[in-house]
């Protein structure tokens, strides 16, 4: 098993952190292997360390345990599982535990605590996670705390590293969905709103989520039409996951799709381990598709999945990302994964690679990147686009929220842009260390990239990686000022791959094979 470069970087960043820190890895990016790598390195450095990995669900316990055993078989006798739902209660030097089973138990001194899906820790001093953490810190105040998540924010309270009561103090590593897709580590997602949508007017909410029983009643009237549309892809898509609003509804989808010549089984938590494994094995072989209600959202590797039908409206950005994340994994002959949305979730959250929270008038809300539909060809476009690729010219920018079927990208748009010239400067802001600011001037616009050589943690490692790439492997500067004096060592891309979200460009990749559009001298300036 060969870890990917970013998994190694994330593991190193976690164990090198001097404060409780979080590594942000997208769904399908391999958090299990990051945990395994970090744990193995800690055991190698300190063979007498006691470590605990805490997970919210048995599927994650199984997955994380299996990846560690595969990566570090030499620690087999030192590793155990403590989970009532799995029927195992072993406290060993390395313990993979379910939070529901372990939080109120008397456990030995722990040197390192890993928390998967760490955004589930409540913001205040309450709940199972904080009970366990407080107890372990009382026994060992120097215990290392390492978190992993794909969504490092909460809708009500913002980023999980913010606030006086936050357990985690820093995001030590963060790699984006689009970056991993472009590098071939994740599969591309495309999306289409279903031809039918449920009426949610009578669906109540409890806390920050819809009441599940109300959802099941609201979605039931559209099941037949939804199955008609899903079945129309039987000659185009090979493996389908259907996420429903209830267990009985999953069984209904399975029956209806099977009756339409698309063999589908339902899977739920009441089944034995053997039953579930048999159904999953049949899915991998291509014997049938699977319908479920939240049972396949985490801890399941099904890379062949190339269609996900979401008959599950949700107010939880985290849940929606987990569902869509089942399609991120790559597989031979898989071009992309289609998301059929029967809950207006894309309208609710926008592009999942740009999910962020912003505080407005004391309240946090999700920042949505709006899209519009070309009325001539149906292409989904950034709100600021004036001319569609089909030639249609927009008179003014408008959002479309039509009730009929429409297509929107679940990921924000990316495109190659020709570079006219490049400028550099030393950028200073507030009391933060300076950084090298690289500005790529493109047609009537620009994109900024900041190399943070002196910030430490993930920003510093990213700066090192970018400098290596742009200099052809040259030695890395120690400061922004040194980097500024050595910009002549950098290759100048004729094109850059940019992703635009919330009005700003992010640089994803460089094309050094073509010259810049305008061979202008590079502008150099510095802020003092």
| Spatial strand order of the main sheet | 4-3-5-2-6-7-1-10
From the N-terminal CA to the C-terminal CA, the straight-line distance is 49 Å
- Low-confidence segments, given as residue ranges, are 396-406, 519-528
> Count the strands?
29
Shape: globular
Structural class: alpha/beta
Strand content: 25-35%
Instruction: Tell me roughly what share of residues is in helical segments.
Output: 25-40%
Mean pLDDT: 86
Q: Largest sheet, if any?
A: 8 strands, mixed
Total number of helical segments?
14
Question: What's the Cα radius of gyration?
Answer: 24 Å
Structural commentary:
- The chain is of the alpha/beta class.
- It is 27% helix and 25% strand.
- It is built from 14 helices and 29 strands.
- The protein has an eight-stranded mixed sheet with strand order 4-3-5-2-6-7-1-10. It has a six-stranded parallel sheet with strand order 11-18-17-14-16-15, sandwiched between helices.
- Helix 8 (223-231) packs across helix 9 (247-259).
- The longest helix is centred in the N-terminal third of the chain and has 15 residues, at 31-45.
- The N and C termini lie far apart (49 Å).
- The model is unreliable at 396-406 and 519-528 (pLDDT under 50).
């Amino acid at each position: 098993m060969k870890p990917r470069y970013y998994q190694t970087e994330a593991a190193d960043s976690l164990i090198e952190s001097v404060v409780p820190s979080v590594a942000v890895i997208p769904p399908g990016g391999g958090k299990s292997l990051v945990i395994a790598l970090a744990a193995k390195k800690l055991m190698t450095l300190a063979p007498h360390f006691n470590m605990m990995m805490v997970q919210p669900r048995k599927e994650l316990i199984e997955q994380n345990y299996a990846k560690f055993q595969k990566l570090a078989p030499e620690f087999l006798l030192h590793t155990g599982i403590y989970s009532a739902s799995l029927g195992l209660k072993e406290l060993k030097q390395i313990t993979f535990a379910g939070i529901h089973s372990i939080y109120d138990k008397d456990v030995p001194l722990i040197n390192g605590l890993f928390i998967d899906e760490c955004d589930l820790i409540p913001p205040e001093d309450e709940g199972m996670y904080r009970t366990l953490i407080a107890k372990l810190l009382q026994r060992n105040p120097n215990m290392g705390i390492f978190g992993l998540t794909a969504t490092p924010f909460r809708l009500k309270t913002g980023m999980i590293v913010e606030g006086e009561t936050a357990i985690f103090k820093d995001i030590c590593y963060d790699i984006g969905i689009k970056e991993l897709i472009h590098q071939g580590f994740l599969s591309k997602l495309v999306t289409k709103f279903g031809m039918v949508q449920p009426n949610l007017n009578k669906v109540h909410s409890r806390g920050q989520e819809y009441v599940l029983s109300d959802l099941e009643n609201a979605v039931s009237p559209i099941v037949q039409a939804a199955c008609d549309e899903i079945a129309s892809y039987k000659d185009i898509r090979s493996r389908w996951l259907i996420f429903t609003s209830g267990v009985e509804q999953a069984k209904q989808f399975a029956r209806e799709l099977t009756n339409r010549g698309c063999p589908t089984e339902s899977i739920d938590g009441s089944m034995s381990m053997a039953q579930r494994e048999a159904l999953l094995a049949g899915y991998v072989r291509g014997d049938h598709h699977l319908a479920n209600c939240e049972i396949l959202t985490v801890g399941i590797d099904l890379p062949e999945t190339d269609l996900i039908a979401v008959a599950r409206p949700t107010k939880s950005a985290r849940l929606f990302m987990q569902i869509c994340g089942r399609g991120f994994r790559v597989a031979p002959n898989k071009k992309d994964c289609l998301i059929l949305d029967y809950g207006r979730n894309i309208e609710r959250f926008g592009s999942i690679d740009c999910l962020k929270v912003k505080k407005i008038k004391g309240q946090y809300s999700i920042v949505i990147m709006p899209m519009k539909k070309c009325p001539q060809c149906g292409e989904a476009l950034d709100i600021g686009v004036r001319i569609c690729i089909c030639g249609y010219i927009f008179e003014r920018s408008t959002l479309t929220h039509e009730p009929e079927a429409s297509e929107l990208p679940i990921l924000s748009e990316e495109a190659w842009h020709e570079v006219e010239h490049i400028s550099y400067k030393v950028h200073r802001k507030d009391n933060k260390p300076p950084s090298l600011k690289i500005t790529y001037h493109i047609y009537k616009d620009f994109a900024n990239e900041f190399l943070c050589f002196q910030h430490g943690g993930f920003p510093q490692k990213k700066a090192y990686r970018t400098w290596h790439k742009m200099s052809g492997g040259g030695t890395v500067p120690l400061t922004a000022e040194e980097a500024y004096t050595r910009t002549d060592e950098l290759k100048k891309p004729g094109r850059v791959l940019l992703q635009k979200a919330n009005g700003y460009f992010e640089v994803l990749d460089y094309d050094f094979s073509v010259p810049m559009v305008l061979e202008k001298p590079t502008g150099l300036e510095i802020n003092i």
